[in-house]
Amino acid sequence: MMRALYTAISGLTNHQTKMDVIGNNIANINTTGFKSNRATFADTLSQTISGSTASTDNLGGTNPQQVGLGMAVSSIDTDFTAGSPSSTGNNTDLAIASNNGLFIVKSGNETYYTRNGNFTMDANGNLTMNGSGYKVQGWNASDGVLNTTGGTEDLKIDMNSAMPPRATSTITFSGNLSADDTAKPITGIRVNYADGTSENVSGSYSPSDVASYTLTGASGRTYNIQPASGTTIADPYVGSVIDNTKTLDSITITNVDSANLPQLDFETTAKAVKGGTVTLPSATQSVMTGTYKVGGSTNIGLGTITGIVNNATGGLDITTDHNGTSTTYTVTNAPAGAYAIGDNLTVSATVAATQTGSITLDNTATTPTTAILTYDDGSSVDSSDFSTAITANLGADAVVNAVAADNITASASLNNTYNNKAVTGITLTMDDGTVQTGFPDQTYATGTNSYPTYTTTSTIYDSLGGAHSIPIYLQKTGADTWRAKVQSGTYDGVQVGSAEQTLTFNGTTGKLTDGQTFNINISVPYENGANQNETVGVNLGSLNQFSGETTATTSKDGYAAGFYKDMTIGSDGIITMTYTNGQKQSAGQIALANFNNPGGLEKQGGSLYAVSNNSGDPQIGTAEANGISLTPGALEMSNVNTAREFSEMITTQRGFQANSKIITVSDEMLETLVNMKR
């Protein structure tokens, strides 16, 4: 009977353990990524009352007689069956939709594993486990290129990143050109001029061509000139680039000869950068690189302070050394302690309206002073493009000439004029009242026929991402022939040369047979650092000519610069950054780990697991390599089965009650035994 008591005690104790497991499962019924546990029992050693005997010729064998000594917890197993994903809408949340696989997170040098994909980004862009701050592991991309063969690292999203622009190299047309187009008589012609005016033309319009030229120096800067009619220009160009009708408005010094610093005139009273007013002993001061404009203020360095003396008027006499020259300056109203020996004395001085001196810019010198000269009409030149010396004097007229040795190339373009005015566009009115576009370089007459014109505006990007919208025209010219045309002109700051291509279609199949490509030549005339001469190819090969409407559209391969806008994580674990220019780029990929025996992992709290002696080593790879499926924007729910847990709770309760009855009955039997003595 004493054995029964202890056997029942083991039953009570171990059923309590199972109830603890059930209670923990139910407590974590809503814990993200929680994996339920189950307790299993096994009997313990038995007391053998008699052993078994083998059969003989006379007697059969007998079985052993054993009394069990109770039970024990055989195992507490973890069920790694995947829980259902619950949508959150948070783009950094991830749910593992497979039974296998765990995320990898780190705290310092400690590595943990988890099914909880509740991730977020910290202030530095680290992808972390929400609540703990543990850093999610994976592979960071380099310029959008992922390498998942190396070791894992902390995943980090560079929220200050920028995507460089891509210059447009190809414009691709697709769609249909209507085979049904017919020519209609012209009843009216209106000419639109560059000065904003327009006029109706009676009878016919016949333009004149006037040449203008774009000069390009070695620096890439372009200069626009328009000679008198009939003048020819050699290549390389020789002649005047800036004439004496222009006044030098500002000078940007890009390089200086340290042994012979350029000098400009300033107002003699200047503001010290560290406080106070400085009296300049001379209006003429040596200057370094920078931009100087008449009437504008600029910082100039007066040298390193070598001495400071309080003067009789309560100010300071500060002595500086500037390239070996010692000069003393009077400083009034200086804050106490603002200046010390060894500091630099810098002032904000105003460029004087009258410049008594001038700067000589000679590109042939050993260490030449070079500058960008900007004139009152907005034009500018780079002195490094010219081998002959340029005398720069702010506020005065200037002349800049080119010689053959400068190797300044020249390219010509034609401007269409009518009545001695530059023409920007032609509007044609047809006999049915419709209006269509005409071309400034073509001749038109009322009563003649013209086909409809279709305009497709394509935005191209220069090498620095500047956007320029250029119209491309498509017009039928006859049976199964069309033309694609770009008019010369300036569009959003770029100069475009005239370009035209004839398209020939098969009248039976509607397929394009000739004229698949042509090029557009553009020139960026302003100094923004972009490549200033580019060729953009136009691909027409995907156009067809069928009945129906004209639906021609364009696509391009260039884009502007972009800055970080947002990020998403895909079902493959790849982190994709979206930029303000609409482009996307891979930023990294989340690593996942597999274990031969995930049930052998040790729980660490906080939904974390650690490697144990029986879990096996982690097999780290991508979701695809590990055969793991991810659900973005969702979290994995607990896999606790409430119905099963309640059923287990009932059977556990009954087991506990039954074992308690064993103790009660055994106690009563012992009491009866004791009472026998009475």
TrEMBL record:
Belongs to the flagella basal body rod proteins family. InterPro entries: Falgellar_hook_FlgE_sf, Flag_bb_rod_N, Flagellar_basal_body_rod_CS, Flagellar_FlgE/F/G, Flg_bb/hook_C_dom, FlgE/F/G-like, FlgE_D2, LlgE_F_G-like_D1. NCBIfam families: FlgEFG_subfam. Keywords: Bacterial flagellum, Cell projection, Cilium, Flagellum. This is Flagellar hook protein FlgE. Residues 632-676 form the Flagellar basal-body/hook protein C-terminal domain. It is found in: Bacterial flagellum basal body. Residues 5-35 form the Flagellar basal body rod protein N-terminal domain. The lineage of its organism: Bacteria, Bacillati, Bacillota, Negativicutes, Selenomonadales. GO terms for biological process: bacterial-type flagellum-dependent swarming motility. Residues 100-158 form the Flagellar hook protein FlgE/F/G-like D1 domain. It comes from Pectinatus brassicae. Residues 445-559 form the Flagellar hook protein FlgE D2 domain. It comes from the Bacteria. GO terms for cellular component: bacterial-type flagellum basal body; bacterial-type flagellum hook; cytosol. A flexible structure which links the flagellar filament to the drive apparatus in the basal body. PROSITE patterns: FLAGELLA_BB_ROD (PS00588).
